[in-house]
Design goal:
The complex is a heterodimer of chains A (335) and B (292).
Chain A lengths: L3 E9 L5 E10 L4 E5 L6 H9 L6 E6 L2 E2 L10 E4 L11 H11 L4 H15 L14 H14 L4 E5 L7 H18 L2 E6 L2 H7 L2 E6 L2 E6 L1 H6 L4 H6 L6 E4 L14 E4 L4 E3 L5 E10 L3 E8 L2 E8 L7 E6 L5 E3 L9
Parallel strand pairs in A: 3-8, 3-9, 6-7, 7-8
Antiparallel strand pairs in A: 1-2, 1-4, 4-5, 9-10, 11-12, 12-18, 13-17, 14-15, 14-17, 15-16
Chain B lengths: L9 H29 L1 E3 L6 E3 L3 H7 L2 H34 L5 H8 L6 H11 L6 H8 L10 H29 L3 H9 L4 H12 L1 H17 L2 H7 L11 H11 L3 H29 L3
Antiparallel strand pairs in B: 1-2
The chains are: A alpha+beta (335), B mainly alpha (292).
The structure holds adenosine-5'-diphosphate (ADP) and magnesium ion (MG).
Adenosine-5'-diphosphate binds next to helix 1 of chain A.
């Protein structure tokens, strides 16, 4: 069990690429933190700096009260689950699970107990004597998790662990990871580019863009009050409508904003609606229908119940409190 | 894919003819000759030839010089293989760590492979030449009296180095390719699992490299046993006192210098059997057993 502090953390790769800059996060003991952002935004780099697989160019990483900048990965009391699982292909599942313990000189009986326990938790008991290549993707994923938990580390690090699974399995494993973390209460940092995965797993989200933090907050906080147009467009599906304030001049109380945001689900059909929309395409999702179109030249999407009437033009209304206003220059939230 | 149909039955054979001719002239016919001669006894002038049964083979197995040649061959082949593969692996591991910046390094290491064996032999013969070479001079400074014309050990060391040197670049390329094929995340996972660099090498890298290693093992043994003729010929010519007279050199020496064709042919047949055995092992093992 440990807290983690990232203090002004930065990374410049040899060659001059700045991958991460000015990252400050305080992670509480037992917290599940998800780093989310588009591909190439520096998530893996950040995680690998915590793991000790990447050198730290600026700032400090503290695990517990200890500065670990110069501590070997093995001595940081962490375990990591890799995107490609990184199972040792020439070792059986049992040996994979035991390897970290064996290297640390854990007594045989203790190793056996922990392997058995992990196998039970993850339901991989029947495969203990198989090689990884004789397992399905989902089973490999479980073994990778098992390898992390047998070690009983203070911190779990996950780098997109579900991205190689098919959609259905991904949803199931997502739940399992959440439950497992709840049960073990191990401080965790989880990296993903999938905002839905991020929303469902996180105690707190860290939204990254171009190596910098855009926002830190609980999933609902971030969803309800995105700190910038970037976060607004990244978190939530379908994405929030972002309209140029000049293009929709009639909305009251928005004079000082550059961009006006409103979520598709916060729009509704209204006779006296202020927004007039030309319908261009409709997506039927079963429970609801997404209607895409334009208003004053700006793209706009609305989520409607599946039985809502359709036409070539729709009048849309909204509640003033559901508007998100952003600065024209920085894209930052202003209210 | 478009399939060409030959109406003329002769044309395919004509197209294959050059390859078939080469195979026949340089491989099948000499092999057949060797097998035939290995059962014959021929006097030194090639006038009288008589059937000798297995006498040539029995003579070899009872011949102290031939048994010595077998021993020398084993020592030589094992030394060349271990040395060339060991050095190549060390270099490959070093390069693998910094591969992006190492293009020059890699190119330099590949040069030796472009050097003909005889030239390599002469090169090393010069370097180790007791009167004009640089190595004996250096060794003399640290108190070692190098002379591969007199010392059996020195001679063996010379031919081993001269033969291994060329093979290092070949092995190196395969090892680098093999190392590059191991995902970095495996070694990273092992690092997190508490394995230091040495442990990581022996627990993860080396086992995963085993298909490459086994392939190279066979290739290097075959090389040391059969392709080092020119190196031996240009450095020690099998001497001193038979110390570097490996089997393939002895075939040549007994046949062409000693004019004992029956015995030489029998030796060729034995070598042929060894090649066949190695090839079988290669196919059986590399394709099936060495996997994970
Ligand atoms: N070893 C490296 N050398 C140089 N640049 C790198 C290296 N690894 C990653 N980068 C760069 O750093 C940035 C962040 O990469 P990464 O952390 O892998 O992003 P993410 O995991 O969010 O997709 C990218 O621009 C990437 O090209
Ligand atoms: Mg990544």
């Amino acid at each position: 069990m440990a807290s983690i502090t990232l203090d002004n953390l930065g990374k410049v790769y040899p060659g001059g690429t700045r991958a991460v800059g000015d990252v400050n996060i305080d992670i509480a003991d037992g917290e599940f933190i998800v780093l989310v952002g588009p591909s190439g935004c520096g998530k893996s780099t950040l995680l690998r700096m915590v793991a000790g697989l990447e050198s730290i160019s600026e700032g400090e990483v503290r695990i517990g009260d200890r500065v670990v900048n110069d501590v070997e990965p093995a001595d940081r009391d962490i375990a990591m689950v890799f995107q490609n699982y990184a199972l040792y292909p020439h070792m059986s599942v049992r040996q994979n699970l035991a390897y970290g313990l064996k290297n640390r000189g854990t007594p045989k009986a203790e190793i056996e107990r922990r392997v058995k326990e992990a196998a039970e938790i993850l339901q991989i008991g029947p495969f203990l004597d198989r090689k990884p290549r004789a397992l399905s993707g989902g089973q490999r994923q479980r073994v990778a998790m098992g390898r992390a938990i047998t070690r009983e580390p203070a911190v779990f690090l996950f780098d997109e662990p579900l991205s190689n699974l098919d959609a259905k399995l991904r949803v199931a494993m997502r739940l399992e990871i959440k439950e497992l973390q709840k049960r073990l209460r191990t401080t965790s940092i989880y990296v993903t580019h999938d905002q839905l995965e991020a929303m469902t797993l996180a105690d707190r989200l860290v939204v990254l863009n171009g190596g910098r933090i855009e926002q830190i907050g609980t999933p609902l906080d971030v969803y309800r009050r995105p700190a910038s147009t970037f976060v607004a467009s990244f978190i939530g599906s379908p994405a929030m409508n972002l309209l140029d304030a000049k293009a929709v001049p009639h909305l009251p109380g928005t004079a000082h904003a550059g961009t006006i945001g409103i979520r598709p689900e916060d729009l509704s059909l209204a006779e006296d609606g202020l927004i007039e929309m030309n319908v261009m395409a409709v997506e039927e999702l079963g429970a609801q229908r997404l209607v895409h179109g334009r208003t004053s030249g700006e793209a706009i999407t609305i989520a409607l119940p599946s039985d809502a009437p359709l036409g070539d033009t729709l009048k849309l209304g909204f509640d003033r409190k559901n508007l998100h206003l952003f600065s024209r220059d920085s894209g930052a939230r202003i209210d | 894919m478009k399939r060409t149909i030959f109406n003329n039955q002769l044309l395919p054979w004509l197209l294959l003819a050059p390859q078939l001719a080469i195979t026949f002239i340089f491989f099948i016919w000499p092999a057949g000759q060797a097998i035939r001669q290995s059962f014959l006894r021929e006097d030194a002038f090639g006038i009288n030839t008589s059937f000798a049964g297995l006498n040539n083979f029995q003579g070899l197995l009872g011949n102290a010089q031939y048994l010595n040649s077998m021993k020398v061959t084993v020592i030589f082949a094992v030394s060349v293989t271990v040395l060339s593969m060991g050095v190549a692996l060390l270099l490959a591991v070093a390069v693998d760590r910094m591969l992006r910046s190492s293009r020059v390094y890699t190119t330099l290491l590949v040069w030796p492979y472009a050097v003909a064996p005889a030239v390599a032999g002469i090169l090393w013969w010069f370097i180790f030449n007791p009167t004009v070479g640089i190595m004996p001079y250096i060794l003399d400074v640290i108190g070692y009296d190098w002379n591969h014309n007199r010392s059996k050990t020195d001679a063996m060391i010379l031919v081993v180095i001269a033969s291994a040197w060329k093979q290092i670049s070949y092995n190196f390329l395969f090892f680098v390719a093999g190392l590059q094929a191991i995902p970095a995340s495996l070694r990273e996972a092992a690092a997190i699992d508490g394995a230091g660099p040495v442990r990581r090498f022996f627990d993860i890298t080396f086992p995963l490299l085993s298909p490459t290693t086994f392939f190279l093992l066979v290739v290097n043994i075959v090389y040391a046993m059969f392709e080092t003729f020119a190196v031996i010929d240009s450095t020690t010519a099998g001497g001193p006192a038979q110390a570097t007279n490996i089997m393939v050199y002895k075939v040549y020496f007994d046949g062409f210098i000693g004019q004992n064709l029956g015995s030489s042919a029998a030796q060729s047949v034995i070598l042929m059997l060894i090649v066949i055995a190695l090839t079988v092992i290669q196919f059986r093992w590399v394709e099936k057993k060495v996997e994970y």
